[in-house]
Amino acid sequence: MNLIKSILLTPMWRGYIAIWLVYIVLIAVVLQTNTLLTGNFDPAMIFFAFVSIAPSAIVLTLVWPLTGWFERRGVGLGLRCAIHFTAALAFAFGAHMVLTLLQEPLERGIEWHVWPFLYNVMSYTVVAGLFHTMRATAAAQRQALAAQQARTLLVAAELGALRSKLNPHFLFNTLHSIIALTQRDPAAAETALFQFSDMLRYVLDTERAGADRVTLDAELQFSRDYLELEQLRLGSRLQVHWDLDPALGDFVLPALTLQPLIENSIKHAFNPYTRPGLLRIESRRDPQAGMLRLTVRDDGPGAAQEAIAASPGLGIRTIGRRLELDYAGRAALEIDSRPGAGFAVSVTLPCT
């Protein structure tokens, strides 16, 4: 009883039963084509169609565990075809014998024997093909889910590495600059320490709370603190131009989306050089497309696309993977750079 109940509650088997019931009704209608034209309908034909077809439908359910056995044992295509061929012949012969016992005594010629036999072979083939397709689809879904979970774990690990990567970087560069600043301007050193503390609190809060979403204003403030601390070290070499849409401050985006792009420009366009450089940070909304676009652009040496693809850098690659997972293809990360033409990274996010 529990087995029957579990079968009836399974969507696959409910669909299987429904298809066969519809098929039984259609066969009953076809068998009474002539009587229907005269208005004489014999309900007994539905019973006859049910008794003729239902046993075959029940027996064919055994193909489902057979396909499962193939899947678990990794049976090859050739052996599968051989087993199915043998099973199809056995099923067709058995179904033909059952149908013969149900039929009224008639003079049966070769046509009567051949076509029902071929019909049963075809029924087995269709059901076996359907079951194999369903198992293949389920396996593909499991693989896709496993791959998705693996990518999610990878991005989570990379994001954790990205968070922990900030601490030693600032402990050396920023604290060294603040120590030097305490002798020249104690008030400025105190302000820098508060900014540094706010940055660490931002990183620790998102990690401790598991908050992967922040407002654009919070991400921008984190980036401003970062840049002001970097300016303690770089001085006039780092010139920053903000071109922001003030209406986008409440927009929610993944934490640590903007700052790693800025850090990438600092590392490649400012640290190796003594000349001044310009860093532009822009935010724009495209109302027609319903998208937000964040761009970080520098006037550094740029890079060839081959060098960008081969770069072992963690920040930009992690952001790209997060966008792919979080927005399912609706977000994008684009890099525009050529040797001698600067480096620009744009992140496009859906507004809804």
TrEMBL record:
<feature type="domain" description="Histidine kinase">
    <location>
        <begin position="258"/>
        <end position="352"/>
    </location>
</feature>
<dbReference type="InterPro" id="IPR005467">
    <property type="entry name" value="His_kinase_dom"/>
</dbReference>
<dbReference type="InterPro" id="IPR010559">
    <property type="entry name" value="Sig_transdc_His_kin_internal"/>
</dbReference>
<dbReference type="InterPro" id="IPR050640">
    <property type="entry name" value="Bact_2-comp_sensor_kinase"/>
</dbReference>
<dbReference type="Pfam" id="PF02518">
    <property type="entry name" value="HATPase_c"/>
</dbReference>
<keyword id="KW-0472">Membrane</keyword>
<dbReference type="GO" id="GO:0000155">
    <property type="term" value="F:phosphorelay sensor kinase activity"/>
</dbReference>
<feature type="transmembrane region" description="Helical">
    <location>
        <begin position="12"/>
        <end position="32"/>
    </location>
</feature>
<dbReference type="Pfam" id="PF06580">
    <property type="entry name" value="His_kinase"/>
</dbReference>
<feature type="transmembrane region" description="Helical">
    <location>
        <begin position="44"/>
        <end position="70"/>
    </location>
</feature>
<dbReference type="InterPro" id="IPR003594">
    <property type="entry name" value="HATPase_dom"/>
</dbReference>
<keyword id="KW-0812">Transmembrane</keyword>
<feature type="transmembrane region" description="Helical">
    <location>
        <begin position="114"/>
        <end position="133"/>
    </location>
</feature>
<dbReference type="InterPro" id="IPR036890">
    <property type="entry name" value="HATPase_C_sf"/>
</dbReference>
<protein>
    <recommendedName>
        <fullName>Histidine kinase domain-containing protein</fullName>
    </recommendedName>
</protein>
<feature type="transmembrane region" description="Helical">
    <location>
        <begin position="82"/>
        <end position="102"/>
    </location>
</feature>
<keyword id="KW-1133">Transmembrane helix</keyword>
<dbReference type="GO" id="GO:0016020">
    <property type="term" value="C:membrane"/>
</dbReference>
